[in-house]
Amino acid sequence: MKIVIIGAGAMGCLYGAYLSRNHEVIMLDSFDKQVEAINQNGITVLEEDGREENFKNVKACISGEYKEAADLVVVFVKSTFTEDALRDNKKLFGDKTLVMTLQNGAGNDRKIAKYVNKKNIIIGTSKHNSVNMGGGKVRHSGSGETTIGSNLENNKNLDKIQAILEECGFKVEKTNDIQRVIWSKLFVNLSINTFTAITRAPIGSMIENKYAWDFAEKMICEAVDVAEADGTHFSYREVLNMVHHVCEDAGKGYSSMSQDVMNCRLTEIDAINGAIVEQAKLYNVKVHYNSLIVDLIHAIEGAYRYHKE
């Protein structure tokens, strides 16, 4: 099977490397040095137990330059770049091409639906954590399930994707309630990503720091209220326990947003906490803490120019 990964960052490289065990994998990225490194050396994954494995059977290309239709496209670019990535790579999408998004944020499936039949769209979340070390090398700092679903009932393409992922070493769960999956991922990202981006600390630090966890609780509870207004019920305690467990499991891993801030890159804040703020406006739900965190992250982004001087 020909699999194309759009976005050769930390998570894209992790999934691309594992999938290359049994399939032809092409990585697409806009960063030419990353493309060059992968073509020269493949992808190297440093596992949690200290093992290091090099995956040579991977090719890379500048995003937009690969023109052949794929059997499966996995989208890993930041949500803010989804529209551009899909447009630039539209030749990847044939009538039977399956497209899976494992991105942060909300609404990526609606963007993909402009190019692909809804039955061919798979929406997923990943509990893996990966840190980009540069040059086609990543540190696999946390493991977990990949949960997949569809906006359509009885979508048989879910079985195909499950088989592909499992044969390459991923644990997979299928869900019939994809909206619940999307919200669950948002709860984790809106708290862990944002706070570790501000503190520039590992994910596990959020539950070790009383002040950080107290603020995170307030953001999470606001988001639960928005989910309730949108028609998906969660209890506060259920969600708080879930986020706490993710922090415990991830430990010393760094979130994608904290990596962005440390490298002076624009974040996905508008697709995460910003999505909560926009959704809250539809239902007149108060989200003061999420609004504040969006402004804080944008303020940090605005200060990048002083670090580059």
Automatic annotation (TrEMBL):
Residues 3-150 form the Ketopantoate reductase N-terminal domain. It comes from the Bacteria. It is an enzyme of class 1 (oxidoreductase). InterPro entries: 6-PGluconate_DH-like_C_sf, 6PGD_dom2, ApbA, Ketopantoate_reductase, KPA_reductase, KPR_N, NAD(P)-bd_dom_sf. Its EC number is 1.1.1.169. GO terms for molecular function: 2-dehydropantoate 2-reductase activity; NADP binding. Pathway: Cofactor biosynthesis; (R)-pantothenate biosynthesis; (R)-pantoate from 3-methyl-2-oxobutanoate: step 2/2. Keywords: NADP, Oxidoreductase, Pantothenate biosynthesis. Transmembrane segments: none annotated. One of its GO terms (biological process) is pantothenate biosynthetic process. It catalyses: (R)-pantoate + NADP(+) = 2-dehydropantoate + NADPH + H(+). GO terms for cellular component: cytoplasm. SUPFAM superfamilies: 6-phosphogluconate dehydrogenase C-terminal domain-like, NAD(P)-binding Rossmann-fold domains. Pfam families: ApbA, ApbA_C. Residues 177-301 form the Ketopantoate reductase C-terminal domain. Catalyzes the NADPH-dependent reduction of ketopantoate into pantoic acid. Belongs to the ketopantoate reductase family. This is 2-dehydropantoate 2-reductase. It comes from Treponema ruminis.
